[in-house]
Amino acid sequence: MKDLLLTFTVLSNDSNQPEALATIRMLEGARKSPEPAGSAEPARRDRYTMRLPGEQWAISVAIPGYKVEREQTREGRTGIMMGGTHEGQKMNLSIFLEREKGPRTSDQCRKKYFQPALSTSPEMSEIRRWETDALALGQYLINIKEMVAFDQMHMHAYLGKDDACLDLHLSKVGFEEADRALFDEVFSSVRIERVAD
Fold first, then answer.
1. CA 157, CA 134: separation in Å to the nearest integer?
2. Higher per-residue confidence, 124 vs 7
3. Domain range for residue 116?
4. Quick one: pLDDT at residue 1?
5. Distance of CA 55 to CAs 4, 161, 163, Å?
6. Helices within 8-66 (DSSP H only)
7. Please, what sign has the CA dihedral across residues 57, 161, 117, 15?
8. 179 lies in a domain?
């Protein structure tokens, strides 16, 4: 069996919130189990589209080579997420689209979600923020000294649209500067598309 490394992020303003404590308890009991015989292969898609209920627009992202492994809708349908992996590039991908209490700019979305992410690990370096025409971006590198060659780069792209925030998160273990193009390829593909009922 190959080694398996997983990272998790729980974002909360209160570490005693029931949701945060329940997540930590769940992870404490997590175990790897073999795939059941005949289990379905995760879907591969060249482009992924995400739409909040009732909206006349959707977010579209190019994800060639990624397997979509999980999709989830928050109770009350106020948020949706997906997660996937690119085995060839050894990259992880997650996309969150969440309803907010009022109109949000891309920078406001970054301020809400990126700062809490920076408190998840003490071994962070190369923290950076920058912008493109539509996106507000952020990155950090996690280096765990006890693990050989563990340099995991995390990059987030944030987009504000009406009263919703998009958080597109990519990460890669064993990051080298040449790998930056793999992140940029996905980020540059983000589109807002009109949706007809």
1. 10
2. 124
3. 64-194
4. 40
5. 39, 11, 10
6. 18-28
7. negative
8. yes
Query: Does 24 map to a domain?
Result: no
CATH code for position 123? 3.40.1000.10
Distance in angstroms (rounded) separating the CA atoms of residues 74 and 19: 13
164-173 and 191-194: which strand pairing?
unpaired
Q: What pLDDT does 196 receive?
A: 78
Is residue 119, in this structure, part of any structural domain at all?
yes
What letter represents residue 179's amino acid? D
Structure tokens at 1: 């069996």
Count of the separate structural domains present in the chain: 1
Q: Which helix (H) or strand (E) holds 114?
A: helix 106-117
pLDDT in tens, 8-40: 555 554 555 544 555 554 554 454 444 444 445
**Domain for residue 88, yes or no?**
yes
Look-up: residue for tokens 């996937």?
A: 84
Q: Which of 115-129, 148-162, 174-188 has the highest mean pLDDT?
A: 174-188
Instruction: Please give the radius of gyration of the chain, using alpha carbons only, rounded to the nearest integer.
Output: 17
The number of residues in the chain equals 197
Task: State the distance between the two ends of the chain, measured CA to CA, in whole angstroms.
Answer: 48
Nearest to 59 by CA among 67, 47, 68, 49: 49
Angstrom distance (rounded) from CA 135 to CA 157: 6
pTM over 0.90: no
Interior/surface letters 21-55, b for 16+ CB within 10 angstroms, e for the rest: eeeeeeeeeeeeeeeeeeeeeeeebeebebebeee
Query: Strands 151-161 and 136-143: what pairing?
Result: antiparallel
